[in-house]
Design goal:
- This protein is an alpha+beta fold and 210 residues long.
- It has two helices and 15 strands.
- The strands form three sheets. Strands 1, 2, 4, 6, 9, 12, 13 and 15 form an eight-stranded mixed β-sheet that branches. A five-stranded mixed β-sheet has the order 3-5-14-10-11, with no helix packed on it.
- The N terminus is likely disordered.
- The longest helix has 21 residues.
- It folds into two domains: 42 residues; 159 residues, Jelly Rolls (Sandwich).
Length: 210
C-alpha cells in the first residue's frame, strides 16, 4: 500500500507538470546563422519590435526562447508575450554556427576592440527594469559567474531593446546571445503536497493502531 501511494504521488507530479518543453531559437540580422535556429530580419528596422512569440506554459507557448543577434550602430527591438514569470539572461559560449563548421564565444562581444569600453543596454520597455553594462566582452567571468540579468512578471505584450553605445547614440558593432526562460511555480506542487499529506496520515493511523 505504501509503495502504491508513493507511485501515485509521483504520477501526479508528472501529470501535473507542463505537457511540453518547447524551445525556439532565432538568429537576427547580419549575424551568422546559429545551428538549430530560425533566421530573422534586422530587428533595428522595426519600431514595434520583431516578434519572438509567446513565453510561458500554455498550449502554444515556448518555455525558452534563444536569441542570437548583432548590432551595428543601432538599437534592436524585440517583442513577445508572457503567460508566466520569466528571466532574461546571457547565453555564454561556445556557440556553433554555419552547420557546426565554426564556434564563437557567447554572451556580449564587442567587434573591433579599440580599447574603449562599449556601453551595452538591455531594457524591458514596460518600465519594469533595465540594465546597463560597460565592457568590451561580457563573459561569464566578467559577470561574476552568473548570467542572470533581471526577473520580470507575466504580462502581455513586452518589448525589450538591445543597444550598443551610450544614451540614444549607439555606435560600433557587437554580437549578443540572450535567453528568455519561463519560470512558473510548478503546477504539481499542490498535488505532491497532498500525496505526502496522505502518506503521513496513513503512517499516523498505523502507529496509533499499534
Amino acid at each position: 500500500m505504501f509503495k502504491k501511494m508513493i507511485g501515485a504521488a509521483l504520477v501526479a507530479v508528472v501529470l501535473g507538470g507542463p505537457a511540453h518543453a518547447l524551445t525556439i531559437g532565432y538568429t537576427e540580422g547580419s549575424r551568422d546563422l546559429v545551428d538549430g535556429t530560425q533566421k530573422l530580419g534586422d530587428a533595428s528596422s522595426s519600431a514595434l519590435g520583431t516578434s519572438l512569440g509567446v513565453l510561458g506554459f500554455g498550449a502554444s507557448d515556448y518555455r525558452q526562447i534563444d536569441l542570437h543577434g548583432r548590432i551595428v550602430s543601432a538599437t534592436d527591438f524585440f517583442s513577445f508575450s508572457a503567460t508566466s514569470n520569466f528571466i532574461v539572461e546571457f547565453i555564454f559560449g561556445p556557440i556553433s554556427v554555419k552547420n557546426g563548421t565554426k564556434t564563437i564565444d557567447g554572451g556580449f562581444v564587442q567587434e573591433g576592440n579599440t580599447g574603449n569600453k562599449s556601453e551595452f543596454v538591455l531594457e524591458l520597455m514596460d518600465g519594469s527594469e533595465s540594465k546597463v553594462f560597460q565592457t568590451n566582452i561580457l563573459s561569464e567571468a566578467d559577470n561574476m559567474g552568473t548570467s542572470l540579468i533581471f526577473k520580470a512578471m507575466a504580462g502581455t505584450p513586452y518589448t525589450f531593446s538591445v543597444q550598443n553605445g551610450p544614451g540614444n547614440n549607439p555606435s560600433g558593432a557587437a554580437t549578443y546571445d540572450i535567453r528568455l526562460t519561463a519560470v512558473p511555480i510548478p503546477a504539481a506542487l499542490p498535488l505532491l503536497a497532498g500525496g505526502l499529506g496522505i502518506l503521513g496520515f496513513v503512517g499516523w493511523r498505523r502507529k496509533r493502531s499499534a
